[in-house]
Amino acid sequence: MNLPNALTLLRIFFVPLLVAVLVQEDTSYTALGLVLSNEAVALLIFLAAAATDLLDGYLARRWNQITTVGMLLDPIADKLLISAALVSLVQVHRVPGWMAVLIIGREFAVSGLRSIAASEGYTIQASELGKTKMVTQVVAIALILVAEDYPQLIPAAQAALWGTMVFALVSAADYARKFWHRIDESIKERRRIELIRLERGHQKARMRAARTARQGKVRQG
């Protein structure tokens, strides 16, 4: 296993650890003489996991270690991390449930579209909107965690959360547009091939009929 894939697996490992820390309300941890709230510890875990997302992609491209396993695991790890963080924040009443449902639902919807597209033989590449969406998700969740210890950041955290939802919906619409465009092209191409095959069949039938007619005339003559 190469290092980029190991970092992706590490991000998946961080998910249950993040959930365990987030749902422990009013808990503090002591490390190296410092007393940290559970929000501070959760923030450190979340940022470390988000950093592996940046690092594994960079290393895979730089070292030319892009693998099929990595391409499959990376988006799964991203979705697990964001979904787990949002669900945990809903549990501790930091994020409205309906917002989490929309954002997480978007992830499953886009994954479904990309899977269908892959089964049709083509790939829907991640758009700039999709990449921006991931950045806004990380910023929003980080601000929500920080705002627990610094209430003055609550308006910024709420604004970032709304921005995350907007980017999620807009990028989902962009994926849907690309998906239907490619599906439409695929259907048209299939119909064109079917018409060509049908026309060739008709031509062969006409040629056989003409050949049979000529043979009949020869016999009669």
How would you sum up this structure, described in words?
By secondary structure, the protein is mainly alpha-helical. It has one domain (3-185): CDP-alcohol phosphotransferase transmembrane (TM) domain (Four Helix Bundle (Hemerythrin (Met), subunit A), Up-down Bundle). 82% of the residues lie in helices and 4% in strands. The chain contains 6 helices and 2 strands. It has helices at residues 3-22, 38-62, 68-91, 97-119, 128-149, 154-220, and strands at residues 28-31, 34-37. Strands 1-2 form a two-stranded antiparallel ribbon. A hairpin with a 2-residue loop joins strand 1 (28-31) and strand 2 (34-37). The N and C termini lie far apart (80 Å). The mean pLDDT is 81.
Note the beta-strand portion: under 5%
Mean pLDDT: 81
Give the N-to-C terminal Cα separation: 80 Å
CATH topology: Four Helix Bundle (Hemerythrin (Met), subunit A)
- How many structural domains are formed by the residues? 1
Enumerate the spans where pLDDT stays under 50 for 5 or more consecutive residues. none
Major sheet details: 2 strands, antiparallel
Number of strands: 2
Strand order of the largest sheet: 1-2
Identify the overall geometry. Answer: elongated
The CATH class designation is Mainly Alpha
SS element count, helices:
6
Give the helix level as a range of percent: over 70%
Radius of gyration: 27 Å
At CATH level 2, the architecture is Up-down Bundle
Instruction: Write the CATH homologous superfamily.
Output: CDP-alcohol phosphotransferase transmembrane (TM) domain
Counting helices, strands and paired strands, the structural category is mainly alpha
Strand and helix order = HEEHHHHH
